């Protein structure tokens, strides 16, 4: 049996200018449809019977499409909600982990979160977007996760480490990289963790990478990390003011820091750095409040 085409007469040999009609229009063309009188089911049945086979097929397909679209839309809505909740869980877990690391080193409270925000600000200024930006943020937040492998008698030592202890400390980027590289959604972040202690002049550790061999994220991080270290109180010294920290970063351009990263840092006004610092403090207070409820 030959299958009848569902195309209307307008489409046969003449597709130019052909327009599909909304379902409402098809119903309006049905005798009696749209009148103000109340119609019983038998009347409606008669109206539908008056439609051509092509129109009935179109209505059937349109109804199936409507149902399928409604189901897929609901499914997508559920998936978006699940993905959003999963992402929020990931981020909360990472923040909690970073907070625990900072709390272990009593003098570095909120250091990891501030450095993450500072680095992200510079990365956005540099035009970095999407997944690369996410990886830079996560890598900056978890940069010191390798210190989990360091004993307290080394990490919390009030005086400078011995040569042997310093060798262990310099290995923490490798330890951190080893922890994160096996976690799929942190794979990109692990590269920042592995290279965050490298220097532009090649005198960093653990690999002694130089110049552009160091990932962009780590070159930006190096400036942000030093800026936060200088402008935060430590048990053995008071915080340096913004102007002094700015001059020190300029002085180390081309040696410790990539000149390109320094220029990005200098292009961001002091007010913006202060806003980020305050915002980080507010975020931390919210996290603490959520945990206590």
Describe this entry's structure for a reader.
By secondary structure, this protein is mostly helical. 61% of the residues lie in helices and 0% in strands. Helix 4 runs antiparallel to helix 5 and helix 5 (130-141) packs across helix 9. It is elongated, with a radius of gyration of 31 Å. Mean pLDDT is 79; it is low at 1-44.
Describe how the helices and strands are arranged:
Blueprint: H1 23-28, H2 41-49, H3 53-104, H4 111-125, H5 130-141, H6 152-155, H7 163-169, H8 172-180, H9 187-195, H10 216-230, H11 242-251, H12 259-267, H13 270-292
Helix pairs in contact: 4-5, 4-10, 4-13, 5-9, 8-9, 10-11
Structure summarized in a few sentences:
This protein is mainly alpha-helical.
Characteristic terms for this protein:
293 residues, mainly alpha, Hypothetical protein af1432, 0% strand
The CATH class designation of the domain at 91-292 is: Mainly Alpha
At the fourth level of CATH, the homologous superfamily of the domain at 91-292 is: Hypothetical protein af1432
Distance between the termini: 70 Å
CATH topology-level name of the domain at 91-292: Hypothetical protein af1432
Unreliable stretches: 1-44
